[in-house]
Design goal:
16% of the residues lie in helices and 55% in strands. By secondary structure, the protein is of the alpha+beta class. An eight-stranded antiparallel barrel has the order 1-2-3-4-5-6-7-8.
């Protein structure tokens, strides 16, 4: 099988797997998806989080190696935050924005302004970001990003703490 066929099969498998995650989040409207990206995200905490709530400096990073729009075929982001968190509250709900930088330098970075919520289900923390594209490629569309983290190790939380967590994420951008 040629390289392009392998990539096509890989992309189809990843997007099929991601479809269940995106479908559960649902778009803000019935608009058509113009971009879907699948990847991983990570959050780092300084100081490491424990069972005791404390103010931490955090960094969220995300990498989407596979996106459906051939003009914006991959993406990444980095976002700095401060919050009072613990092993039982990895992120609080709120509002913010982030900028996705596309792998194609001709595709303008996309600013996503969103509300985020966290839920815990089956040993995982699911973070759902829902909002609008306020600038760059895809503006003035809407978007949903869903990210999942495994609940932190109880022994590490009771001891030295946890400095970072990672998990899968999916971004779907909808036409205005």
């Amino acid at each position: 099988m040629g390289r392009s066929r392998k990539f096509g099969a890989f992309l189809a498998a990843v997007l099929a797997a991601a479809g269940g995650v995106v479908a559960s989040a649902g778009p803000a409207s019935a608009a058509a998806a113009v971009q879907t990206c699948v990847g991983t995200w990570a959050v780092t905490y300084d100081p490491p989080i424990t069972n005791t709530p404390q103010l931490v400096a955090g960094v969220l990073t995300g990498t989407f190696p596979v996106c459906t729009d051939p003009q914006a075929f991959n993406a990444s982001y980095k976002q700095v935050f401060t919050d009072v968190v613990s092993c039982t509250t990895l992120l609080n709900a709120g509002s913010t924005s982030r900028t996705y930088v596309w792998g194609n330098p001709l595709a303008a970075p996309t600013t996503f302004t969103y509300n985020f919520t966290t839920t815990v289900a089956a040993g995982q923390v699911v973070v759902t970001n829902t909002g609008v594209i306020t600038a760059g490629r895809y503006a003035p569309g809407s978007a949903v990003q869903v990210a999942t983290l495994v609940t932190p190790d109880a022994l590490a939380c009771a001891g030295p703490g946890i400095g970072s967590l990672t998990g899968p994420t999916t971004l779907t951008i909808y036409a205005p």
